Amino acid sequence: MKKILVAGARSFVGRSFARWLERFGGRYRTDFVSLRGAEWRRRSFAGYDALIHCAGIAHLSAGPDELYLRVNRDLAEETALKARREGVGQFVFMSSIAVYGDSAPPGKEKIIAAETVPAPTNVYGRSKLEAERRIAALASPAFKIAVVRAPLIYGPGCKGNFPALIECARRLPLFPKVENRRSMIYIGNLCEQLRLLVDREDSGTFFPQNEAYVGTSDLVRRLGALQGRKITLTRLLNPTLYFLRRFTPAVDKAFGSLCYARELSRCEEYNIVPFERSLVETLNAFENLQ
After folding, report:
1. Residue 41 · residue 86 · CB < 8 Å
2. Is residue 63 very low, low, confident or very high in pLDDT (cuts 50, 70, 90)?
3. In percent, how much of the chain has pLDDT > 90?
4. How far apart are CA 169 and CA 147, in angstroms?
5. Where do the DSSP E strands lie in 34-99?
6. Which of 38, 108, 127, 188 could be disulfide-bonded to 68 (CB atoms 3.0-4.6 Å)?
């Protein structure tokens, strides 16, 4: 039996991962530790095969730069030091595609390849990249480090941008028609990759994504169709988008391109939930919360 400790008792990824492992019978034991306060420093990490570090401040959270660095960087390093000192064999750090900076503006491409150098443009991305580098320095044959640079994660219980797209598909009859490409990962597929990383005791940097890129306009259209609504995509709205992007980065985040090169990801290993089914499962959960 693999014993796994998840740091981040309330994290979306951590909770989803624990539920995912339940389907494999008694092959895994998953426990949680909250990194809030000081109690976790007195808890023993001894006996765990792997620690999955999901704790942190999300990119949508508000707070001063110092808070991002203290939580996303310093706390992650301190957790890794404790894990290594107490004999945990593997440390899996949930990082982000944000280490590569912003999306390309609408109409431009941004494909991240193996040789692409990380260049974060906000404190969230910088805090994650600096944490990666500090944790990597702790690696040894007995303490393996796996860094998972996740793109947008969606699925039942997700927060942030994806629920906003569901609301657009529910309410809008018209939507801008923009050609863009984005890497995304369904939570079930991400959990399967994490399971495989732990099983194989992998180390290195990993770039999870669904098998196919997603365009924002097509995604909203498909979400609408699954809710029984026909959404018309039109370029007539695009000039408004290009005007608004002067004043808010939200336009580029929604309609820009940001994706991993296909060869960076071994999608066939962990993409066990097809895209259409992943949308249905996410929508069903969203409906149940209304």
Report:
1. no
2. confident
3. 83
4. 34
5. 50-53, 90-96
6. 127
